[in-house]
Amino acid sequence: MNQLYNNLDLVQLKKMFGSASIWSIGDDFFIADLNYKGKGKLPFNNIPTRIDGFIGLFCVSGNLTLSVDLKETMMRRNTFSVITPGNIIRIENNDPEFGYHIIAVAISTKYMTKMRFDMARFLSLLSFLTGQRWCWQ
């Protein structure tokens, strides 16, 4: 049976980013400064991928489409998205000539479990502090 998506852990994900600026603490946490131009360099271009970890994406510049579990979201300058374990994602560059610049923060599921981090409580607090509704599906 053919698999319809790729499965990656954080070690594999970090390797996909190649020569990008990456700061990491072991294999369980990293921050990557990612700049992409053109269609061929995207790590998830038309390849749905499931990542075993939490990923925060902050768009510094550019314009891209982030598909999470087949729901498309436009990411533009100063937007932030959270990807949770089990989500299947795909990234599409909407302007290959200009490209995009994102900051990715990746934390393994194992590390989050050790910290006893409660995402629902965090998003509730964030909603209270910012006055905006924050959710994920």
How many helical elements? 3
Structural class: alpha+beta
Sheet with most strands: strand arrangement:
1-4-9-6-7
Mean pLDDT rating? 77
Q: Oligomerization state of this entry?
A: single chain
Count of distinct strands: 10
Low-pLDDT residue intervals, each spanning 5 or more residues = none
What is the ordering of alpha helices and beta strands? EHEEEEEEEEEHH
Q: What portion of the residues fall into strands of 2 or more residues? A: 35-45%
Distance between the termini: 28 Å
Portion of residues within helices: 10-25%
Largest sheet: 5 strands, mixed
Shape: globular
Which radius of gyration do the C-alpha atoms yield?
15 Å
Helices and strands in order, then pairings?
Elements: E1 6-8, H1 10-16, E2 21-25, E3 29-36, E4 49-51, E5 53-61, E6 63-68, E7 71-76, E8 80-83, E9 88-93, E10 100-108, H2 109-115, H3 119-130
Parallel strand pairs: 1-4
Antiparallel strand pairs: 2-3, 3-10, 4-9, 5-8, 5-10, 6-7, 6-9
Question: How would you explain this protein's 3D organization?
Answer:
The protein starts with 5 loop residues before the first strand and ends in a 7-residue tail after the last helix. Strand 2 and strand 3 form a beta hairpin. With 137 residues, the chain is α+β, with helices and mostly antiparallel strands. The longest helix has 12 residues. It has three helices and ten strands. The model has no long low-confidence stretch (mean pLDDT 77). Helices cover 19% and strands 43% of the residues. The strands form two sheets. The protein has a five-stranded mixed sheet with strand order 1-4-9-6-7. Strands 2-3-10-5-8 form a five-stranded antiparallel sheet.
